[in-house]
Amino acid sequence: MPEVTDAPTEPAEPVTAPAEPEPAATLPQLIMLDAGDAPTCTDGVCL
Amino acid sequence: MSARIRIDVWSDVVCPWCYIGKRRLETALSRFEHAGDVVVRWHSFQLDPSIPAGHREPVQEMLAKKIGAPASQVRAMTHQVTQLADAEGLTYHLDRAISVNTRDAHRLAHLAAEHDLGTEMHERLLRAHLCDGEVVDEPETLIRLAAEVGVPADEAAEVLRTTKYSAEVDTDIRNARKIGINGVPFFLLNETYGLSGAQAPETILSALNKVHALAS
């Protein structure tokens, strides 16, 4: 008598990753050219 | 032959320092000997992507809640940035500005960029929000602003009816995060050299000269 298993009898649907937007070009190793003292808006606050 | 300089700018259309930074960049470029070799590209950044779509609130009330300060204190603080904007020839009316989710505005900016009108659209959106008290998530307003800079109104309407350019907005924001950008404006020169914030024109000009010398 054949062994009973719960393995699927049909091949599973191929799994594809959700569509991603176009990947960005290689991102840079950043070299900052300022003293870090200029005002910015951060987290919705710009004061 | 002169080297090309690419400037990628991350900015939100409701960001007071971004408009000031834009003017300062323009001032720097007007003094830069090789300005004709510079290409500027604007990228999306949302200061507060958690604002629900359609939610509108006066900016000063929103700020008062966010920083836990009385409205009078927020008015005094916004007065300072208003004065600095004035020095750049910009007339801010932050008392009339309405806080909204800027995602749709950014999607339209990407459409405008496809028409080579990215800079013009970004400028128009900044002015609409910061100077004119326009509500920059209102479809009719956005379509009108787009048309004013030359983007076909039917294409703008189509973008707002759909989710077009959402992926582009997400990619810009994701790239900002990967680079380590926490605040805007942020200027990236030739994909390597960073300037954070509304830098003085002299600082931007100095960076442009340095990057040009390195690229030549």
How would you sum up this structure, described in words?
The complex is a heterodimer of chains A (about 45) and B (about 220). Chain A has about 45 residues and is low in regular secondary structure. Chain A has strands at about 30, 40. The radius of gyration of chain A is 27 Å and the shape is flat. Mean pLDDT of chain A is about 65; it is low at about 1-15 and about 15-25. With about 220 residues, chain B is α+β, with helices and mostly antiparallel strands. Chain B has a domain at about 1-15 and about 25-45 and about 180-215: Glutaredoxin (3-Layer(aba) Sandwich), CATH 3.40.30. In chain B, about 55% of the residues lie in helices and about 15% in strands. Chain B contains nine helices and seven strands; from the N terminus they run βαββααβαααααβββα. In chain B, the strands form two sheets. In chain B, strands 2-1-6-7 form a four-stranded mixed sheet, with helices on both faces. Chain B has a two-stranded antiparallel ribbon with strand order 3-4. In chain B, α2 (about 60-65) packs across α3 (about 70-85) and α6 (about 140-150) packs antiparallel against α7 (about 155-160). The interface of A and B includes residues 21, 36 and 44 of A.
Structural key phrases:
heterodimer, A: 47 residues, disordered N terminus, B: 216 residues, alpha+beta, Glutaredoxin, four-stranded mixed sheet, two-stranded antiparallel sheet, 9 helices, 7 strands
Radius of gyration of chain B: 17 Å
Low-confidence parts of chain A lasting 5 or more residues at pLDDT below 50? Answer: 1-14, 16-24
Shape of chain A: flat
Structural class computed from helices and strand pairing of chain A = little secondary structure
Query: Into which percent range does the helicity of residues of chain A fall?
Result: under 10%
What percentage of amino acids of chain B are in beta strands? 5-15%
CATH class value of the domain at 1-13 and 25-45 and 181-216 in chain B: Alpha Beta
CATH superfamily of the domain at 1-13 and 25-45 and 181-216 in chain B: Glutaredoxin
